[in-house]
Amino acid sequence: MAPKQQLEKAAWQWTESVRPEEVKQEHIELAYRIRLGSCRRDARRRNCRGNPNCLVGLGEHVWLGEIDENSFHNIDDPNSERRCKNTFVGLTNLGATCYVNTLLQVWFHNLELRQALYLCHSPRKEIGTGEAIEDDAEFEPQSIFEHLQYLFALLQSSNRRYIDPSGFVKALGLDTGQQQDAQEFSKLFMSLLEDTLSKQNNPDVQNIIQQQFCGQYAYVTVCNQCRRESKLLSRFYELELNIQGHKQLTDCIDEFLKEEKLEGDNRYFCDECQDKQNATRKIKLLSLPRTLNLQLLRFVFDRQTGHKKKLNSYISFPEVLDLTTYLERKDIGCIYELSAVLIHRGVSAYSGHYIAHVRDDRTGDWYKFNDEEIEKMEGKKLQLGIEEDLAEPSKSQTRKPKCVKGVHCSRNAYMLVYRRKVEGGKEKEITVQLPPHLQKMVERDNKKFEEWCMEMAEMRKQSVDKGKAKHEEVQELFNMLPAKEDEHYEFLPVDWLRKWLDDSAVTKPIDNSCHLCAHNRLIPDKICDVKRISQKAADIFYARYGGGPRLDATALCRDCVVEKCRILRLKNQLNEDYKIISNLTRTTLQSHEGYWVGKASLRSWRQLALNQLDGKEDDPDHTDGKSNGEGLNDLHAKGDDEIIGEKDDDEDMNFNEDLVCPHGDLCTSETERRLVSVETWHRLKAYFPKSPEFPHYHSPCVQCQVLEKEGEENETLSKMMANEQKSALLCLFQDKNRPLLIKWPEETDVLYVVSQFFVEEWKKFIRKPTKCSPVSSVGNNALLCPHGGLMFTAESMTKEDSKHVALLWPSEWEIIHKLFVVDNTIKVIRLMSTGEHGTVQLEYTTSPDLCGECREGLLCQQQRDLREYTQATIYIRKVVESIKVMKEGAPELNLSGSEAEEEREECKVEGEKDPDFNQSNGAKRRKLTHPCIGGGNSSTYYKQGIRRSTRHRVRGEKELIVSANQTLKELKIQIMHAFSVAPFDQNLSLEGRMLTDDTATLGNLGIIPESVILLKADEPIADYTAMDDIMQVCMPEEGFKGTGLLGH
């Protein structure tokens, strides 16, 4: 038994021998556990919840002893956000902007570029003065270029450990939650920067991009016939190197410059020969830039998947790269040193993380820039480290090749930056000074940072001072808490004591109101929620924190203890009474005298008694004054449905209320009650003194008897009415011999119209006359427009609008007119005329006439509903042979018998492979015929593109929930999840029409609810790891569309 339960049992064990009227003060103190011993701190760490004298384990261990000042606050040291000496500044990742951060760090470390950017002046001028707006003390960057200047200034002179680039990113208009192609961003931003700097007057600023990054090569074509050489000069800002199939950087450069043969259909037109000739073409490097950017094409387009993928193969590259042999002029030395390596961590082209390794040109040290974190490499050496440890999707992991000294290997490097070495020794050191306006802006930001540091430090100090004061208070009061024997005491909520000892919680006034009984004293069962402390400590608590009411020794409630004593004794007696009553109910009554008891109440009386006693025990005084079985008079105020609902719930049922009728009297059904002896009733009555009492001579409710008799008579009348109406309109009920325009007897010139809703409701009544209400009126007004005209044509009533209307023979209409109230008579009239050649021509009109305007509006609304749906169902059927796509419009009509049988077999095989299809009866799909009668020649088929909602799924077919505004590409993604067929392998068709425009919406493609789309899958791809990339491309790529990089 748990300690709490043991303490509970010991506190009330005296009730077994003490009657309620014999309760004394000693019993009350036992119930409130006043004399229980307290626990020692060194002997116990957990609090005894059932012992009000246990003051251990409330959270006091935090305060009793020496405490570190840092435990008094949760504020980090602001100096941890301060930039360390001789270190660089990081950039915050705004979500998925790590690709921007890495390139910004590389460009920042280009000192010539940084100096030129600082010398660039903003085109903004103050209105009316002509002075540069940078001189304004409140200057704030607005354009992309101004944000870049400010960002570089902060990276150079900020006191912060890292800075927020959100101003620059916002100026560019980039989506911070979407990762973009870093190589594309580099190209576009360099182009934007070159265009901006070209408008400057200073030539050193104007041409800095060309001086730093621009090289020149020539496309050289040599005719094999006349040996004439043709050159086409071109500038480049980076070399894009294919790495597929290569292991070394020099191999990639060799492929870039290799000679290409122009033969066959690709022959070259020679101006000298004036004819197409075989030729050779290659690229010759004419000049190389100061900073050489080598783009390693890791992200390539996969023709098989239709999406980008990443090449995770190793490429080795040297720290020193000699490109002299690659230049056309061999006498010019061209040696480069590795300056930066940009890394993409991750196996997918659509996700991952970007990191930059950059060398400081001034010191030669290597640094790893990982957003906010910057790490200096040891020994002035490049260390790629953990960036190469990736979990590959395939089981066979590529082993890293061994590299000689001065050479590095990487399978994640996507961009290499080399700086040309200066001939003749050490290059000239460049000192980059901030312009005055940028210096002011940086100083202003540093001032804000210092103020923030001071504010954080002050908050830390205040928290420490508050914690020290709390420490002294706890040490002063905690030893004062235990109440000694024969000392005045009070009760305090244990939750309040815990919050008082919790430094993070604000100590509120003491609240004892939730522990009070109806007599404004302490509830005995709440003793586990309070602690008994000395009155001296309580005086200090109430003086400092306030609250109340105070609970001292006079708060022990004698009335509650006596009541619980009575309840506990009843619970002990309950087991004995249960055995006696069980034996009494098993014996047959010798006489018909006794009391009526509900069978449900008799089955569950023991549980009802326990629930009642437990309820009184838990809250003996906070009740509404009703015991179990009380409230009989309130039954009259409740409706029949409420009473029945209450009776159905046994847990809420009061004893003997299951035989009470809605009128508060004895129910008429003898199957729900039984007669018990007088002795049994008296024993039950002791537990349920206010339960309904019905002696054996009590008559059942008269009102219920009258209602039952009336109900039986009404059911008989309804059955008779249903049989009469069914006999009179048997063909209408059985849907036989229904009138159609194509089969109209000559002796009949008029048909009548009723709404299909009326027919369906009438059929429900005929089938279940005792449960459904009889139909009284036809309700043809629903078929008419507000102008009183008809909404349907005579032809449409037997075709697409047959679900709205039903046609009746004149004889049936006469019966309808007699049996029901008709608001409007609607007729279809046949007019016969003789043509020029004696042929009989038929024409159909309606009465009332068709309202053309409303009819057109109805058709438009129906078409709009088919094009503007949401959460509608369509069906995707996977097929194997292409013949199904070509002849999908009406397969049963186009195929021969053998072909149709073969198609059914194929569908069967496909369906067996479909785990989501479950059809137990294996029935074949039914043909959907035109709702007409009379001969097989007149039967037609619905188009397969439209299905009723009650359709049966075909094997190999799955349901998808779609909306009209989603694109075909999004639908293909859903199909990929359902059939495991990649979008690029899907060939979709609707009614023989191929669906190819991935950007078109389903509504524009004519896909309506209940459509059946045929799916023919191409051969599956061999590399299923590519599916990881496809899963992430649910929306079309937009790249940098709409951003500042493209002039928006």
UniProtKB/TrEMBL annotation:
It is an enzyme of class 3 (hydrolase). Residues 614-638, 908-930 are annotated as: Disordered. It catalyses: Thiol-dependent hydrolysis of ester, thioester, amide, peptide and isopeptide bonds formed by the C-terminal Gly of ubiquitin (a 76-residue protein attached to proteins as an intracellular targeting signal). GO terms for molecular function: cysteine-type deubiquitinase activity; cysteine-type endopeptidase activity. Its EC number is 3.4.19.12. Residues 622-638 have a biased composition (Basic and acidic residues). Belongs to the peptidase C19 family. This is Ubiquitin carboxyl-terminal hydrolase 48.
